[in-house]
Pantothenate synthetase (Actinomarinicola tropica), 289 residues
Amino acid sequence: MIELTTVAELRAHLDAARARGRSVGFVPTMGYLHEGHASLVRAAARDADDVVVSIFVNPLQFAPHEDLDAYPRDLDRDRQLAADAGATVLFVPGVEEMYPEPVATTVSVAGVSAPLEGESRPTHFAGVATVVAKLFNIVGPCRAYFGEKDFQQVAVVRRMAADLSFPVEVVAEPTVREDDGLAMSSRNAYLDDAHRTAAPALHRALAAGAEAIAGGSSPDEARAAMHAVLAAEPLAEVDYLDVVDPTSLESLQSFEAHRGRAVRLVGAARIGQPRLIDNIGATVPAAAD
Ligand SMILES: Nc1ncnc2c1ncn2[C@@H]1O[C@H](COP(=O)(O)OP(=O)(O)OP(=O)(O)O)[C@@H](O)[C@H]1O
Ligand SMILES: CC(C)(CO)[C@@H](O)C(=O)[O-]
Ligand code: BAL
């Protein structure tokens, strides 16, 4: 694995690789890598000859009150994990390299950015879309791998790549979980012991909602089932729990148009210091004859 820090070096390296007929897989990250990231790198390595992992804690996607300065970092460990999972290129640009001047151009994706995370973090997805657009332009034609743990982010990036005709195929990979169901996340490092014990309640709530849907519940009943689980966990403070259309992310009031089809249960909760997000899929039972 080689390590590059400038846009010019990465472009030159990948242009030369593609000229030799090599395909490129790309895994954008903010570092502090874990098994969830490793699963994306392994998926990319199965499909492509060269696998680029970027590590860049993007200031644009953090609101002023959020954890930009405290965001966990461990570049030595990240190098090892990325190489072991099959990365061939580690791209670690500094803020000066990515943003030599304050950006005047922002990419914002209307519609899918607005609900859920967008309500709690109104500037977040424009920051994500802007940096991902830059990274796609730097990396060039590739398949890019994202985790379903950030379900809304995948929807935003897919829509941006389609609307702006990026030569990038966006691939979503399943969420990797701890044994007790907690979705792996770099921010889990902020959990102290008591909150770490409480944290799987978010996944349990989503699972209870999915079970209710499988048993014929309405969207409101599924939401109530999720809230009941988190209400029993005093260390969890709910931000939202919802059942949404998996493409538009619109909150569902009825399952009539979704009989026999997939829906998504999504949730966010503050559990101690970190605000954790998670989601799972469910299929609405087909209408009885
Ligand atoms: N548990 C996971 N399973 C699969 N993919 C994941 C998982 N956690 C993160 N990813 C994906 O890894 C990519 C990089 O994410 P990022 O570096 O922000 O990690 P993170 O653990 O989500 O961090 P944070 O805790 O800040 O949300 C994203 O596409 C994200 O969806
Ligand atoms: C996609 C991403 C690397 C953009 O900064 C980030 O939002 C993340 O790590 O999910
Ligand atoms: N994985 C999402 C990145 C963020 O919360 O900023």
User: Anything to note?
Assistant: The first strand starts at residue 2 and ends at 4.
